[in-house]
Amino acid sequence: MTETTLTPTTEQIGELARLYFENLGATVRQPGDDFVVEFDGVTPPSWAEPHVDGGRLVAAATAEPAERAGDGPNDAGGATDTGERERPEIRPETAFARRLIDAAAARCPVGTASVPGVPGGVDSLVPAWLQDSPVDVASVAFHPYYDSQVACVWVRVEIETPSQYQRESLHTVVVDPETGARVDCDPTALFDAAAASESGADDVTPDPESLRRAIDEARDHVVAEVDDTLADVEAGAGRAATDAFEQYAARQRDRLSELRAERDRVETELASIGDRLGDAAGDDRVELLERRERLTERRAALDSDLSTLRAAESDGFPDQRARLRQRHAVELRTRPVAVTGVSVERGDLSVTVRADGRRETLDLSVGAVTGLRRTATCPRCERAFGRANGLRVTDDGIACEDCVE
Fold this sequence. Notes:
Elements: H1 10-23, E1 27-29, E2 34-38, E3 52-53, E4 56-60, H2 95-107, E5 110-115, H3 128-131, E6 136-160, E7 167-175, H4 187-196, H5 208-225, H6 227-277, H7 282-315, H8 318-327, E8 331-355, E9 358-367, E10 371-372, E11 391-394, E12 397-400, H9 401-404
Parallel strand pairs: 5-8
Antiparallel strand pairs: 1-2, 2-4, 3-4, 6-7, 6-8, 8-9, 9-10, 11-12
């Protein structure tokens, strides 16, 4: 997980729950580690009804999972085996938190917020790689030109196999809706800055085409983020399929041995009947002939079963392999839950740097909180500045460390 995506914290889930239930007209109190919702004259939402008793919903607002029934992420909630009402938990990745997020997003799938000014001061806009470069930052000036929006896209990821436990996670990715490119900033810092603002959000949301680009980029980024997890699940599913196939193949080999042994017994008995028929007469002969007919039919059936099983074994049991692949197939699903358009100031950041008595000014295109809009590159070689390729001040102006060395 990089700093450009996040999963919600317990505090964020709690704040969302407070806003959601208060918006419904309910009263919310938080005594200690309890989260109490009172539905006085208000109809509880259907998804929360299993947790409501006497017009009250009491949840545990703690970051630590409780060791009791209903703690798992796929728990349906409601009553326990003892008949007691289950106490939900306001904690990421619980069933209660997932339903809350989905319900809140359904009420307002596209929202807006704004970040006025530069909450952390202009010095916070200086990129980390420049701060780490072998130069001193002498002065910083921000020249805002206009407000623009970034799209914070919430994406739910589900990784599932029919034979294994389903994994779910919720991610937030910040995207520039104008270009569709991901913005390298911390979503938590962006939301915190918007939440701290006392000004109202501009009632402007990205156009449908921009939203589509933002959602597509967010999905692609999240898929890349969960690649290691997906690989682990696929490896586990592959091992499970291999184990199941080996067990199946062993059973079929045992079955082949049983069929061969039974055919040998039938063949032996048929030979015995052939020897006895020469001396048999009357009812004994009729009985032997009937017995030989039944055994001949049984031998033909055994030969057919043996032929089919030998052919399947020779081919590696392809039908069973296909069934097991389907049974242990891994499915990755991504679903956009909500989008928040956050308005931020954008402009030029003039950074004056000095080293060995030399001074130069670097102009960067930045956004408040969201950071660099375009990659800063060396004027000599056009390679990107970064932590591994810092900025230097030379007699001929600004250059990267690769050019100087």
